[in-house]
Design goal:
The complex is a heterotetramer, with two copies of chain A (506 residues) and two copies of chain B (169 residues). In chain A, 34% of the residues lie in helices and 24% in strands. Chain A has helices at 11-23, 40-44, 63-72, 89-97, 107-114, 116-125, 141-151, 174-192, 249-265, 297-304, 308-318, 396-409, 419-425, 429-433, 440-445, 456-471, 476-479; strands at residues 4-7, 27-33, 47-52, 77-79, 101-102, 137-138, 155-159, 169-171, 197-201, 207-215, 221-233, 236-242, 270-278, 284-290, 333-340, 342-343, 349-350, 353-355, 357-359, 366-370, 376-378, 385-393, 411-413. Chain B is 0% helix and 54% strand. The chains are: A alpha+beta (506), B mainly beta (169).
């Protein structure tokens, strides 16, 4: 195992990696941007170095500075987390060139992956179905039109090097295709540095299901079951669960065997996720392989007990996978809610700033991954994901019940969050039946507003307390009161006689 | 009659009546009875009350803005505005003024695109520009129908929450 | 299932029960003593009623008031939690008489249990070994001496109706037995209302191992594996784990079969724990049956996935157990640390007061059960247990590693806690080997002091910050600063030009 | 030389030297270099510093008692006493005075038993009484050798932290 690694990421995923490293006594080096100085991943690591200002291009995407920091701090390996440089072949190559182990697939495998055409060609060659039309670049609106006519409308225009809905357009008609082409191209160029687009059949109400893989050298790979990720808002996942409510045992075996075939065909190594869409007719189409640890890895860890970060470190340091498929059992059901700093009452506008207070849920089957604490800063520069609340239960019903309780116990003060959205999902009849798809959330959220339920009793109690706040306007004297003792002596103390105290005896 | 705006919803509240610890407070059409169980000294003010079968704890801290209160009900945060004088049947949204309207940035981010220009006519709700923040593209809509008088930002600018973006006359 | 129950307890166990009730949509009624008004179990329940002042005899032990509250609030059943009235036959009978379901064994079974002689006679009759000398009351020091001579010194003098080390004396000689008799007797009388003592063989370095049972009607019972509870300080458990490092599969089967035999012989129903000591020679002796949910039930829940509170409710409401042994599998290892409000640096003196700040640990395999929050009150009237931190791992090593990380992440400010003791245990060589016994902790703690490790760098940083606190002595003006915005604008903001922001794409 | 007592352990600290943001502070025999990275305004005072390869955050709040500070280092609480003037090689425990000693209750609880009486001689460390709290029996030991002058409590009394229990002369 490594003695010391650098984590080229921030926030909750950096802290997640630090936790496993601490357990394994692997020393950690954190890097941080100026606004992230106060993040828990900075004080949580054994060492921490500043790598730039807030904008990612100046900090977490700054390959040269990160590699220099890694060399200077004498680490053996670099864990990229997810996002930022996690699937960047240039970064992996820069690490390799500097004699650092990149904890993930090799730069060669990443190079293939970023380009979706190549990865899909590999899959197709291995007999894995891909979405119709998905394997050539289109240079012009006219080329796109020809491709669209071949596979039939509606189609999706997608960025070849993209992800997350950027540079993506649905076209139901030729006119929509023409209108969307240039904007999609420019979005792709701005967003990913590559303008290349391709056309793909637009599937109606598909499900988005992925398989978590751990792949050792020489094609030895195991799976940790699937994750259903169809609950998305604007192509961003918001709630993931395992097992998928859409699969019976036969379909599950089929999906997993397709996923393993893709991994073998692409000579993939380390942890990775093979993404599929499932059509309404139940056909699977390969989408892409996510060559990193994923946000939603928690649910797979909860049902299998496998620490995916530990396995990533193990595979990278020892070039072997110390786990066989028959040691892995998926038990019960698990669910992950992404808590984003966004205001669902105002069009999901990002809500950055200070988190004045964070209260974590507890109890059976609850797991919390977050870098939040009282006073934590949510900078405006990065992804809005600030916490993940995951639960496990013996079955889906138990998991849903535990998630409801966990969300009701969670408090985030100072920024708005998507917790009310999750609470609405967990009461939705179709969700409870497991009957949903990738376009489900956009429909559900259209016209939806979070409903604050405040009872007349609560209103009265609020008014009463506000009155007392105003009445007892702070005087110099009152302010001198030590805040830590403001409660002392406010408790009624009885002067009872002899009491038989302390009979509990646990 | 004073009005409390709790997370955008309006409630009419009446004067406190009764004798400590038993108080009555009219809320909308209803008369609510409370029993005060405990009150902390210092800031924020925390009060425990009994309302029927329930115990409710409320913490209140005053915001910079004299009319805004940061409230916790059983530990859950709420933003409450107190409007002592006026009562209108409105939706609780801020009303649009008749004069020129300054459009401010609702958050920090980058101006990804400007979709209007000085002297162009705009409708209320029309998209003026796109602000990129936390990986998302957010439309900035005009708060009134009128003409763009001034544009304070250009594409690619980084802005902070509250920065002025443009003026609609 | 019940529609509404009353929870005759406080703090973390009341909240634990509320969590399962919320999930199952069972409404809850909390009761509280005056100082407990601010406890999370009060605002967490659907209803809450005050039952008296701080002293337990006036509140949580006040049978008449609790039963009256239950009737008035129209609940169907009462959950007693652990401690207080959990094993009180009078309370169970008062519930039964009032037409309330007591969630636990019947008053008849409890009546037998409180008296240790009877329960041991039952066990002996069923062929389960009990500690030598354990089945008659001794009325005088002389009778005790005769009994001690029969079984051989050293012996233990124990209270027949007691628990938790009270009314207990070790005697290695006749003189020690004579000296200890009267004090033990008076302690037993003060503590439990019964002066009766008995003599039992004192075992050298025994292990204390118990089996968690769920027992339905007609003798149908399942087990959830064992718990090793040998880590005790003055007969109070402090860390529990499963599986026991002392058992091989054969010994485990033997232990479990003895436990099930006791349950059947005593016609036990509901959740219960059968406690044994294991001698150095590996012989099991039945001690007693704990007829309640136990503090350390978390570890059994973590390895089996079974929600013990749910099963208690189910068994009490529907008189059936919907679980068979072949549905239960114990996976991996789990461990529970009892975090007590005590000061280990000063002889474990209780540390009551305000908890100014509580930070919960997170990440994989961690579970936290507590009623703590920022500003929570720890009254001096009740047990010092304020939080339980439990972890699960695929094996004991992983569980230990996770516990170390979890404890390092936990912060309790305002009261002193036993976290340093747990941290010391988790570094102890013998503990790591699984090589410990019931007298281990008292030896380990003799002369032990928590070591605060503060580096010169930390001292320098503390001094620097103290200097700045003093220099910027609060003026009236400074105090007016809105605390919620005290950080604003303290962050260096670069004015960089165009930046390719937000490239992450998760 | 000023002394910091951190959770009972004594450290000698010297004067701050150097120029912002780079400072030098002698701690015992060692000279520690720090770089100040950020400081919050308001109370408590929070400072982020770099010490070699680490970032350390320290929050300090002053206690009622002018010499006691409530300190958090990377979020972990510590009690720190600042002794500006004196330096002694003592253990950090409070020293025993020569005059009569008042024994106060270290915590709230119930007096379970009194093991001495007025006019009896007691040794330092001898058990005076048993205080029951949170299910535990706690021995209250004499802080000095002497004679019990006054007993302020009797068996069964409920006491609070700081209540006087007896006087040893």
């Amino acid at each position: 195992m490594f003695r010391k690694i650098l984590i080229a990421n921030r926030g909750e995923i950096a802290l997640r990696i630090i936790r496993t490293c601490k357990r394994l006594k692997v020393r950690t080096v954190a890097v941080y941007s100026e606004p992230d100085l106060e993040s828990r991943h900075v004080t949580g690591a054994d060492e921490a170095y500043r790598i730039g200002y807030g904008p990612p291009s100046d900090s977490y995407l700054n390959i040269a500075t990160i590699v220099k920091t890694a060399k200077k701090s004498s680490v053996e390996a670099v864990h990229p987390g997810y996002g930022f440089l996690a699937e960047n072949a240039d970064f992996a190559r820069a690490c390799e060139d500097a004699g650092l182990v990149f904890i993930g697939p090799s730069s060669k495998v990443l190079g293939n992956a970023a380009n979706k055409f190549e990865s899909k060609r590999f899959a197709k060659a291995a007999g894995v179905p891909v979405v119709p039309g998905a394997n050539t670049e289109v240079q012009s609106a006219r080329e796109a039109e020809a491709e669209a006519r071949k596979i039939g409308f509606p189609v999706l225009l997608k960025a070849a090097f993209g992800g997350g809905g950027r540079g993506m357009r649905i076209a139901k008609t030729v006119k929509e295709l023409e209108q969307g082409f240039e904007t999609a191209r420019s979005e792709a160029n701005t967003g990913f540095g590559h303008p290349e687009l391709y056309v793909e059949k637009y599937l109606q109400e598909p499900r988005h299901i992925e398989v978590q893989i751990l792949a050792g050298p020489r094609g030895r790979a195991v799976h940790l079951g699937e994750r259903e990720c169809s609950l998305q808002r604007r192509y961003q996942k918001i709630l993931e669960e395992t097992p998928s409510p859409a699969l019976d045992p036969k379909k599950r075996r089929q999906l997993i065997s397709l996923a393993l075939r893709v991994i073998k065909a692409t000579h993939y190594e380390n942890a990775g996720t093979v993404e599929f869409v499932m059509s309404k007719a139940g056909e699977f189409y390969y989408l892409e392989t996510n060559k990193r640890i994923q946000v939603e890895h928690l649910v797979s860890e909860m049902v299998t007990g496998v620490d995916i970060v530990e396995k990533q470190l193990m595979m990278a340091s020892e070039h072997r996978l110390d786990l066989s498929q028959d040691e892995i059992e998926c038990i019960g059901a698990a669910m992950n809610c992404r808590i984003n700093a966004e205001d669902p009452a105002h069009g999901f506008i990002p809500s950055s700033g200070r988190v004045e207070k964070f209260v974590s849920p507890g109890g059976p089957g609850v797991r919390v991954d977050t870098a939040l604490y009282d006073g934590a800063l949510v900078p405006e520069y990065y992804d809005s994901l600030i916490a993940k609340i995951a639960v496990q239960g013996l079955d889906r019903t138990e998991a849903i019940g535990r998630m409801r309780v966990a969300l009701s116990e969670t408090t985030v003060e100072g920024v708005k969050t998507t917790i009310p959205v999750h609470q609405a999902i967990l009461e939705d009849r179709k969700f409870l039946q497991g009957n949903y798809h990738a376009q489900f959330m956009d429909k559900m959220l259209s016209g939806w507003k979070p409903q604050q339920k405040t009872t007349p009793e609560e209103i009265a109690a609020i008014f009463l307390t506000m009155k007392r706040t105003t009445d007892s306007a702070p005087t110099l004297n009152a302010q001198k009161t030590e805040p830590r003792s403001r409660w002392r002596s406010s408790i009624e103390e009885p002067q009872l006689g002899k009491q038989a105290l302390f009979l509990e005896g646990l | 009659m004073p009005v409390l705006i709790v997370e955008g919803k309006r409630y009419r509240v009446g004067d406190l009546a009764g004798e400590e610890p038993f108080l009555n407070i009219p809320v909308d059409e209803q008369n609510v009875g409370l029993e005060v169980l405990r009150q902390s000294s210092g800031q924020p003010t925390t009060v425990f009350v009994r309302a029927g079968s329930r115990v409710i704890s409320v913490s209140v801290q005053r915001h910079d803005d004299q009319h805004v209160y940061l409230v916790e009900v059983n530990g859950k945060p709420l933003t409450v505005t107190f409007d002592e004088d006026s009562w209108s049947a409105g939706s609780g949204e801020t009303t649009v003024t008749d004069g020129p309207a300054l459009v401010n940035s609702p958050m920090a981010g980058k101006i990804a695109a400007i979709k209007t220009a000085v002297d162009l006519k705009v409708e209320e709700g029309q998209s003026l520009m796109i602000l990129e923040a936390m990986k998302m593209q957010n439309e900035i809509a005009s708060t009134k129908t009128g003409v763009v008088k001034e544009l304070y930002v250009k594409q690619g600018d980084l802005v902070k929450a509250g920065d002025r973006l443009c003026l609609i006359g």
